[in-house]
Amino acid sequence: MEVAVLNKAGQETGRSVELLEQVFGIEPNDHAIYLDVKQYLANQRQGTHKAKERAEIVGSTRKIKKQKGTGTARAGSIKSPVFRGGGRIFGPRPRNYGFKLNKKVKTLARKSALAYKAKGNSILVVEDFTFEAPKTKEMVAITGSLKINDKKSLIVLPEENKNLYLSARNLKNTQVLTVNELSTYQILNAKTLVLLEGAVKKIEENFTL
Question: Considering the chain, what is the average pLDDT of its residues?
Fold first, then answer.
């Protein structure tokens, strides 16, 4: 699949890149995508929820009423879950929601997500650029030129660039990531995928090993 290379003003440079069929042209695997997105969302959960159970409640251990003759059910502790202020039955405990996923499944999921974007013509390739200092105004101008300022977009860099990251940090619809930080969830969550020219080569290298 051939995609024209744009400059940061949104104009064609007269050059194009051939997106590798092994990465951007595969038959997407929906189940691999499901598993990778599920793992990503599970890893976002803190899992710090906690409720006190009966044994953890601070209170008197005195028997609160006599065993027989009251006409009601027997009760031995004010900490019982049936009373207000008592412990909770099978309450939540701190836990880790993460689970293991094979590396090959994760790679297949990312390639499938990229294939969906390629099929939907949602990939823009832009020649490499950088800023001398963080400038949100300049990033707004670029997203406007590329006509992506009104929709969710993901700009993928070949390597870390602090100035570009800081320039886009306050933009509601724009996220900046490096190739190594890419996840299936973030690829699919963006309406438009903006790949810097250097990032295309690095993606292909990473996913064809």
Answer: 91
